[in-house]
Design goal:
The chain has eight helices and no strands. It is mostly helical. The chain folds into two domains: 56 residues, no CATH class; 115 residues, no CATH class. Keywords: Membrane, Transmembrane, Transmembrane helix.
Length: 219
């Protein structure tokens, strides 16, 4: 049997995909299942076309990636096709992306936020600092400084100020939520933890850490 006769018998065009060949085979077999000679011809045509496709694939001439092995249909990877189209489009056109920071950015921003976090911890745990550095206004001042630092680092990535502000506010909200949950669990105002007795200090630490992550990895 020639390739041309196999194509004619199954009613497919040259270069047909595995699925097309399989569907054509099933359709022809359904119409001649009682004729053993015809069934044998269909099976031979099917094998002929698949062997030709595999040969072309090895030679790099087959564009259809669905043809892998003669008797094995391609299997979809787990989870493929389960994401709605609108979600795929949203993810593709998301207004923010994530990136790996450079070593210099990581070092500079870690130092800035690390210093703010150390100052925050000291203001809430140390009894030797002057009252100016341990007043109730200090955490707010530190958070404002962290907010400004986040805006600065984000705008350095060629991000407009409005977008940078929204991302920074988002980071602040996430940090405040996590920090509040941790503080409710620790209750440092009842039982001090590592010398910290102010709930505002605990929440501030998480906000600063969240802003560090946002300014480093979000673009």
């Amino acid at each position: 049997m020639t390739v041309e006769s196999a194509l004619k018998l199954l009613g497919v065009a040259e270069g047909a995909s595995f699925d097309d060949i399989l569907r054509a085979k099933s359709a022809v077999l359904a119409s001649c299942k009682d004729d053993q000679d015809a069934v044998a011809q269909v099976e031979a045509a099917y094998d002929m076309l698949l062997m030709q496709s595999l040969s072309q694939r090895r030679a790099g001439k087959v564009v259809d990636n669905s043809i892998r092995y003669a008797d094995v249909k391609p299997v979809k990877s787990a989870g493929s096709g389960t994401v709605p189209q609108w979600m795929q489009a949203t993810m593709k056109n998301a207004p923010v992306t994530f990136e790996v920071p450079s070593s210099s950015s990581l070092g500079i921003q870690s130092c800035v936020y690390g210093a703010l976090m150390v100052f925050t911890y000291a203001s809430g745990s140390s009894t030797s600092l002057p009252s100016t550095y341990t007043s109730a206004d200090v955490p707010g001042f530190i958070l404002a400084t962290g907010f400004g630092a986040s805006l600065y680092f984000l705008t350095k990535k060629n991000m407009n100020l409005g977008k940078a502000a929204l991302i920074t506010v988002g980071g602040l909200a996430v940090g405040a939520t996590v920090g509040s949950a941790v503080e409710n669990w620790l209750q440092v105002d009842v039982v001090p933890f590592l010398g910290v007795h102010s709930p505002a200090v605990v929440v501030s630490e998480f906000i600063l850490f969240s802003q560090l992550l946002v300014s480093l990895f979000v673009r």
